[in-house]
Amino acid sequence: MDWLNQGVQGILLGGHFALFAVGLALVFGTMRLVNLAHGDLTIVPAYVALLMINAIHFSPFYSIPITMAIMFVVGYLLQRGLLNRVVQSGDVVGVILTFGISIVIQNALLLGFTADNERLKAGTIDSLSIRINENLAIGWLPLIIFLVALVVIIGLQLFLNRTKMGRAFRAVSDDQEAARLMGINTKHIWAMAMGVALVIVAIGGVMRGIRTTFDPSFGSLSLIYAFEAVIIGGMGSGWGTLLGGIILGLSQTLGARAFGPPWSILTGHVVFLIILALRPQGLLAKTVTS
Amino acid sequence: MTKALETQGLRKSFGGVLVIDDLSISVDQGEALGIVGPNGAGKTTWFNLITGAVHADGGKVLFQGKDITGLSRHERCRQGIGRTFQIPKPFSGMTVFENVLVGATHGRRMRERASYGHCVEILEMTGLHDKVNVLAGSLTLLDRKRLELARALATDPSVLLLDEIAGGLTEAEVQELIEEIRKLQATGITIVWIEHIVHALLALVNRITVIQFGRKLCEGDPREVMSSQEVQACYMGGTLA
Ligand SMILES: Nc1ncnc2c1ncn2[C@@H]1O[C@H](COP(=O)(O)OP(=O)(O)OP(=O)(O)O)[C@@H](O)[C@H]1O
Ligand SMILES: [Mg+2]
Predict the structure, then answer these.
(1) Total domain count for chain A?
(2) pLDDT reported for residue A286
(3) Which of A41, A166, A212, B240 would disulfide-bridge A160, Cβ 3.0–4.6 Å?
(4) CB within 8 Å of chain B, chain A residues 137-176
């Protein structure tokens, strides 16, 4: 039952992809900004955690809340100070600016940390697993990451649907002009959206740093996976993004099982392209972030 | 007594075309002022200058005697300026109740729970109480216009700007709307109403100002203004009944 094992690993991997993708979807949903720096922003928290762990040797898990707070501030200031200027200037300007930011982040990380592989050491957790039978074992770490992704997505939906600030996110997403007329400061809301997106990225980024090695070039692939998950699921829907992540994860692990490990990533891309061709609006298409 | 709203020498051009040309209009507290003028006269642009959606090239906007020309849109809303759009812009992915709730909580800086009562009151007043859980994007035109009104009221405005709120409605719907606006006026809200449906204006407003080519053509008693030679000429017997 190796297939079953690969299937389970694929689903868990999908949760991890979704954790990176929801931030991208949230930013796109609230301000129609295609953030090409999103992938690079997913590795920044791993390096932030690395710095902390090197300074005060504690478990990487403890670094998560601090990294979340730091990434929130980074996101808020990045949006308020820079990205807000381009939100209304059309897609192209936003793409160019975020592409520029992406290059700056990559090179800054190369300068600061070199191109060497890094890893956030969390002791034995990354090798512990629950053995179901002789062919099926579920790693604790992938399982925790999946559950965290689930909690984050449920939390985000509750935030968007039940809170004053969340409703402001949706109002701004639906109609900026009308939102301003209702007393909403769109500049603040966009900055909050980027802050929240990077808080989620911080969780996923540190978790990945514990799970696998990383280096400054990881951003591009993260961005592509995030885009694929978001587009498969249908822009701007939290559950859609989770579904998209799971489909992508499954395609990769089952592709590896069927055609051999080198084909894993390619299978994921091919499945993405097929879904894009058959259902360009995504599987759970919605126009707003709810 | 300070004016509820006043624009002084406002000017605005788009790409070299002067759309608002030295426009000075003032509105008394509690007054209902009607604004008429041919298509493209600059009426909506004047509203945009008041709410801050468009920045003036020159001139001032005074609200309750204070210069608000430099304030941004959300600040002007919180000061007490409410507005409905000529083409309704509901938050289409949200329910009717949520639309109103957003106005009540952000426009008045209140917590959600504390503003539920206020929202229910407004939904009843605007006749939307049986559609609270309907998605705003699926409303009929009349209900969209009502929602525009309800959402603006939720922010608790002292001055309400209505942009062709009766346009596109049937005669019976127009009558309903007039009754609703009359009730608002009775609560002391100052109303500025742009409208092409003149009999609706005549049923309600205290005064009419006519705008043409971004300038004030004339103003005064509603019936006198509407029957004057120059106003008839400016419409060339067109849309006026
Ligand atoms: N943002 C803009 N950019 C360029 N031109 C504009 C803009 N807004 C308005 N205009 C132009 O300004 C002029 C006045 O438009 P406005 O919408 O204020 O007219 P109006 O009096 O409200 O007309 P209507 O009765 O048709 O609603 C029009 O010629 C319009 O095309
Ligand atoms: Mg107009």
Answers:
(1) 1
(2) 55
(3) A166
(4) 163-164, 167-168, 170-171, 173-175
